[in-house]
Amino acid sequence: MTSLAAALAVAATFTRPLERVVSTDPIMAQSVYDCHAVGLMYATPLEVDYEARPYRLVPGLCELPEVSSDGLRYLFRMRRDAPSSSLAAGDVVRALMRLRDPDNASPGGWTMKSVSSIRALDDDTFEIVLSSRSHVFPWMMAMSYAGVPAADGSETGPYRLASWRRNHEMVFRRRFPEPGRFDEVRYLVVSDASTQWLMFLKGEVDYLGEIARDNWDAVVDAEGRLDARLASEGVVLHGRPALEVAYFGFNMRDGTVGRNRKLRQALCCAFDFPTWRKFMNNRVLEANGPVPPGVDGRVEEPAPYRFDIERAKALLAEAGYPGGIDPATGRRLVITLSIGRAAQEGRETGELLASFFERIGVKLELSFSTWSAFLQAVNEGRVQMYSMAWVGDYPDAENFLQLFYSKNTSPGPNHSCYENADYDAEFEAAMASESAADRNVHWRACQEILREDCPWLVSSFPMRFTIIRPTVRNYVPSDFPYGEESKFCVGESR
Questions:
Q1: pTM
Q2: Which regions of the chain carry the CATH code 3.90.76.10?
Q3: pLDDT computed for residue 493 by the predictor
Q4: Among residues 76, 97, 100, which one has the least CA distance to residue 88?
Q5: Is residue 292 reached through a cis peptide bond, with omega within 30 degrees of 0 on the bond before it?
């Protein structure tokens, strides 16, 4: 084999590190890591054009739907020029009905809450009728939850799962070879950020989607430019604000933090964002609520309970814990934070938050578990505080604000089990609105209620930085990267 042919053979496999994938069943794809795998394996009725700005929906298995004047009836027609054109309307209906079935307890079941009926009209057409107007419903048809397996359960997306050594490696092979594209995708389960970085330096992985805090100075110099050695190797750095919010959630059913708004407000005021931002290498933006920048309807004013130690102490006293002392025990108030990974950065961020609470006399204990055990504990309400992030499923305020709607409580996406009748009324009014301007009035009202109630301590809006080796071409940073590897082109090998 010539050196060029050998290089191309190696380059035909795209390799990246990824956290553990728990499930490849579309209706159980709860984490972003699950969604990466599902996005390769299963086609969805619609797709997100990940290169378009602003983002837009494009045909997937189906053409863009016809929508009735009242916004309740959606008519979908199957595409016969799609790679999985052998699928019929009944296949899509079967997948969506499975997602909708409460007996399956899908964490994505909330996407079907507004659906009244789904039926196939013939092999080429199916109809979805909503019980109430939902301007974001078409976006849900592009989510991983809506992935459509074949009748025998096999893959319908661009890749099939060739092998899976759990907690070690997943290998996907392209179902329909395409010149210039990667024939194989490998996900390596490597949780340790330092190990990921060493693998990238050695050329063992082509892509690093998350640059660890401890490695930041090795990637970017003091002027904010890519390290000269990496640049000479053809490595490219991409950076952008992410459609994401990082937060520490309070379990609103907990007898301590859930029933005491003043306590939650005090803990929010104790959060030292300037120190947090420095710890994160300035790769985060200050949060003022749950809706990240760039989303229509977002409140722009600073958070009412931002960093202020003296105010935090005063609010803590008003909450019934002067100096952090629990009057019921005469000892310091102790709160437990649940974290889904025991990796170094998770430990360090938990310890940093504990140091913030220490300043006002509150002791924060850290509880670590595996990601799957953590998700189960959160879904079952067996946590007091929990560390999590929400990556937007679609670019609309509703996707973030539905995290607080009472009908979405766990195992739905409202993991804090937040319930507020005024909030629900505003949320429902927004969903019933026929214009974006009217919706935004209600979305802002929702945010003001949340900013006062503090069901979350919102830590930041993350920035996303990615480094790519020259073995990959056609990479475009996106907030919807699920299945993106199918669009990558084979680049040069150095």
A1: 0.80
A2: 43-146
A3: 67
A4: 76
A5: no
